[in-house]
Known about the structure:
It is a single chain. By secondary structure, the protein is of the alpha+beta class. It has a domain at 12-104: Alpha-Beta Plaits (2-Layer Sandwich), CATH 3.30.70. The protein is 42% helix and 13% strand. It is elongated. Residues 122-141 are annotated as: Disordered.
Amino acid sequence: xxxxxxxxHKAVPIRKQRNILFAKxxxxxxxxxxxxxxxxxxxxxxxxxxxxxxxxxxxLRRHCLQELEGTLEDQGYHLxxxxxxxxxxxxxYYVEETQLHNLEAPERPLKRSQSEAYTHAWExxxxxxxxxxxxxxxEYK
Length: 141
């Protein structure tokens, strides 16, 4: 996933807090995954009340959930594959990817100048609302 460049005026972090759920088997994955992810920069970890959950907090400009879970799967960890987990995961991946894409989008012009441009274009455009009837015929009573 392409990350936008951080500039001085866009230095506000986009803070995300997510849960990573692990499968029941093999047991003991959460402490090992916590140690593994603890080596990454700008990532905060927190054990959750659920025995198979690990809380992660990160800046979206530096990490994303898809990247973190992909890294864990590459290392051999097994994530929860229930239907609800898969749907939540897909939704979060989509939302984060959309946010990153929108950070790269150029700023839109102000509405006033945009509507003025349409008004000027409409005035110059030959459109079908012109009546060729002479004025004396239009006002005939």
